[in-house]
Amino acid sequence: MSLLQAEWLRFIRNPVNLWVIAAFFTLLAASAIWSGLAASEFRAKALQPQHQTGNSQVPTEMHDAPGTGKGSYASKLADNTTVRLPALGGLALSVRQMDLLGSELRISTRSRYTDGRNSDQLFNPLLRELGLLDFASILALFLPLTVIALTYGLVQEDRERGVWRLVCAQMPHPSLLVFAALAVRLVMVLIPALAASLLAFMLDSGSTLYAATHWLFFVGIFTGVWITISGLFLLLPVSSGAVAVGLLGMWLVTTFAVPAGLSWGANGMQPMPSRLEAIVDIRRVQAQTSKQQAELLSTWYQAHPETAPAKEPPREIAGLPANLELDSKVRTLMYRFDGVRKAHFEFMERWSAFSPGLAVVLTADRLAGIDAPRYAEYIEAVNQFEDRWRAFFVPRVMGKQSMAPSDYQQLPVVKSLPTAETVWTVILRQLLLGVFLLLVLITLRNRFGRP
Fold this sequence. Notes:
The protein is 70% helix and 2% strand. By secondary structure, the chain is mainly alpha-helical. The protein has a two-stranded antiparallel sheet.
């Protein structure tokens, strides 16, 4: 306790340390405020389209519809619903990525992959990517830099000034002094990081205790890993400047080089399909289904003898079987991208222990609900719901049938959307990394006794 008190006084009496902590907390707090408010705004907007197109509006439309039997309201209702990927409790950690993901999908009798009328607003993805960083990204970038600024050269500077010889002469275990200094800095870095994280969760109207608990626990592990890395660099018999350069190099390698290498390795094991080839295939399928429109229309009526074919069907009915055939083929092409993204994400998770910064981003994506495996499950669930939706509406649209009151009780619903937050894989890997580094530091602690 006396060593901790001494190191605490030494820490707070250095104004540079206080300025570093203040700058770190200010940056994190600003990011937390923006992220929390943006998450709440995103959740509020997510409720608006569901309220406008939800099943609660259907009876009103049905009640006001004239009994013409032309099926206009069935056709309108068939293209008048949306399914949204529910955001999880950690949305404030990665809200901007959820906005870019395209979590709202329109269910229709037309293909959502080829019908431009279903597209969202146009924007430049590069400019969006270079915009404000999410809270998790800010933490992953600047927490290691704060640790480096507070810990580099703790032993080397005293050696350069000749003070460390006196420490070794007066203390039987100089490593205890180093551990006390690292413990003080661990606490001083954790306080603003945890406080800013709590601020982000409090401002997010949909945050959960589950997400907050797991995130705070992971932030503690992440901070401990970087404190331990700094402690290992204090063992090196080099100058304080060399330690600073080495720690910055470690930060650059683990934060940028390792994720890039893992991405390259994941793509080597399972390459991402070519977008250009996918576009060419889609155009080819479109041309084929367009030529076979009359044949597909006749085949559909033969498969559904209970529906009388129209003599002169309107364009939306004549082209509906061709649209369904087009979507069945294009859907398979597009789902390959989601499957490969899922495989890449899982590959990055398996090797995330080599990049603590990458582990922060992956954990945030899991807690926010925008990870690639969950999104692939979401697309699969939407496709299954869309098949049931079309099986319900297409015969009514093709037969020009109006909606009966009993039909609204049989409307298909989304059975299940992925809601699990599986983050323990990344957390345990980082915990094992931290324990391993700490054991190495403890094993080599006697090296601190060399003046």
